[in-house]
Design a protein that fits this description.
By secondary structure, this protein is mainly alpha-helical. The protein has a domain at about 30-65. It has four helices and no strands. It has helices at about 10-20, 30-65, 85-100, 115-120.
């Protein structure tokens, strides 16, 4: 079989010249290669640790420099009178201790009325 060559004369000369070229032999030192790889990884981890330390230092400084919030004032509005420990309270306590809960008078709040079953239906 006859081979069809679509290349022109200058292209065939270039092809022959390129075929005659030999790649340069490269010697790779495994120790140098491992050293360079370790150095590159070490640089990355050092930057990572430095960045983490800087971020944590900024957070700590912000927490220390932040002014403390004043305690929120709580106002409790109540219609019931505030009872202070006095003689009448101590006397009532002694009556409860001696006679039980029945010793206390019935409590009637403002607007409170007893509920009967007939009121529900």
């Amino acid at each position: 079989m006859q081979e069809i060559n679509p290349l022109s004369q200058p292209q065939m000369e270039l092809e022959a010249a390129l075929k005659s070229l030999k790649p340069k032999s490269i010697s790779i030192d495994p120790m140098e290669l491992a050293y360079c790889a370790g150095r590159t990884v070490g640089r990355r981890s050092v930057w990572l640790w430095r960045a983490a330390c800087i971020i944590m230092a900024l957070i700590a400084a912000g927490a220390c420099l932040k002014p403390a919030n004043p305690p929120a004032s709580v106002v409790v509005a109540s219609k019931a009178p505030v009872m202070t420990p006095d003689v009448s309270n101590l006397r009532a306590e002694m009556q409860v201790i001696n006679r039980g809960w029945n010793a206390l008078p019935p409590v009637r709040g403002p607007g409170a009325r007893p509920i009967h079953a007939a009121d529900l239906f």
